[in-house]
Design a protein that fits this description.
This protein has eleven helices and 18 strands. With about 400 residues, the protein is an alpha/beta fold. It has two domains: about 90 residues, Urease, subunit C, domain 1, CATH 2.30.40; about 290 residues, Metal-dependent hydrolases (TIM Barrel, Alpha-Beta Barrel), CATH 3.20.20. Strands 1, 2, 3, 4, 5, 16, 17 and 18 form an eight-stranded mixed β-sheet that branches. A hairpin with a 5-residue loop joins strand 1 and strand 2. It binds zinc ion. Zinc ion (ZN) binds next to loops.
Length: about 400
């Protein structure tokens, strides 16, 4: 079956767009893009709408507990419950126009298993790039789901074990975080452990990404050859330049601490930590943009207030635009750059003939107002309609 969306603004994903364009696709691929009339089994009038490549959320946590949670729930995360949460969450991304996700830290390696079921077509959800369990220190950030390591030898063993399980990425937790006890800036993994894990990544051809909320840990990770910095608080021009020289990627996830600082109860100590973190990440975001650090987009979905009903992905894009990035460049980050980070830019990330038809249709023009990315009308994954707005 072929579908034609006609007379829409088509944002290609590479920085260009077609006004009043037509796009024809089937379940295998995008067949035609241009201004000519094409015949199709199903025709959708795209007047007033914008067609974009399916969005890519490069920082999510599959199977996290929906907030608010109890200490008991955090401590006792059994495999079946985590798996069911992961499936439900994965399907929900379509509502935000997201067709590919990178899961960077999940209990029981649930994302690795979910990835395989999605590939086989047993579960309809975005394609997943999975990091499995994150590597942390005993009692450190995300220790309830992670692999706890306290020596270089244990770090090597954990990283190699993840590679044996065929993760797509290795996730490490060099510092503490907003979630968990104590300040979010404490250094946790040692420099030697960070270096050992990055070395394993290179040896097994597996990219590495790290949760970083401390300046020294940021420098250590970039020097160790980390592939992608997550959060990256306190980035300054010096580190940004190092990242540009080394080709290090950056995913700020600015929206999560914005929402936590806005919506948490006053009585929750996370609220103040999130407010402090928000100031630092917003500064890092500006520094990264002004220095042209390679960036894609991530929401930290799974953390509090990041489900699709809060429009976390659209809000993250908005935060890019008020930090100095143009609307068009922001949309390139949300599509093509995400595909580049994940090594799939030959098949998705831009709307081109022959590519997989991962497509999102929104009401309005995001180049006029980036908040229009909230208004997802249709999401297609591999040419199949997987979400349709009831509005
Ligand atoms: Zn995260």
């Amino acid at each position: 079956m072929t579908t034609l969306i006609k007379n829409a603004k088509i944002i290609v994903g590479d920085g260009s767009f077609i006004e009043n364009g037509n796009i024809l696709f089937d379940k295998d691929k995008i067949l035609k893009i241009g201004k000519e009339e094409y015949k199709a089994d199903k025709v959708i009038d795209g007047t007033g709408k914008t067609v974009l490549p399916g969005f890519i959320d490069c920082h999510v946590h599959a199977g996290f507990i929906p907030f608010p949670w109890t200490d008991e729930e955090v401590k006792n995360q059994d495999e079946i419950t985590v798996a069911m949460r992961a499936v439900s969450q994965a399907k929900s991304f379509f509502k935000s126009g997201i067709t590919t996700i990178r899961s960077v830290g999940s209990g029981h390696d649930v994302d690795v298993r979910l990835r395989e079921l999605i590939k086989k077509g047993e579960i309809q959800a975005p394609r997943i790039f999975a990091a499995g369990r994150p590597i942390c220190i005993t009692s450190g950030h995300c220790c309830d789901i992670g692999i706890e390591v306290d020596t270089v030898g244990e770090a090597l063993k954990a990283a190699r074990t993840l590679c044996k399980k065929k993760v797509d990425w290795i996730k490490l937790m060099p510092t503490s975080g907003v979630i968990g006890v104590g300040p979010s800036t404490n250094v946790q993994l040692s420099n030697e452990q960070i270096k050992a894990i990055c070395d394993v990544g290179r040896a097994f051809d597996t990219p590495t990404c790290a949760h970083i909320m401390n300046y020294n840990a940021l420098i250590e990770c970039v020097e160790a050859g980390l592939t992608c910095v997550e959060h990256g608080y306190d980035m300054d021009d010096k580190v940004a330049n190092m990242m540009v020289d080394k080709g290090t990627w950056y995913i700020p996830t600015a929206v999560v601490t914005l929402y936590e600082s806005m919506y948490m109860d006053e009585s929750n100590p996370m609220k103040e930590k999130a407010a402090q973190a928000q100031i630092r990440v917003r500064n890092a975001l500006k520094v990264a943009i002004s220095n042209n650090v390679k960036m894609a987009v991530g929401t930290d979905s799974g953390c509090p207030y990041t489900n699709p009903d809060t429009y976390a992905f659209a809000k993250e894009l908005y935060l890019y635009t008020i930090s100095g990035m143009s609307e068009m460049d922001t949309l390139v980050c949300a599509t093509k750059k995400g595909a580049e980070l994940l090594g799939i830019d030959d098949i998705v990330g831009t709307l081109e003939e022959g590519k997989i038809a991962d497509i999102v249709v929104i009401n309005g023009d995001p180049l006029q107002d980036i908040n229009n990315t909230k208004n997802v009308e249709y999401t297609y994954r591999g040419g199949e309609l997987v979400y349709k707005s009831l509005n």
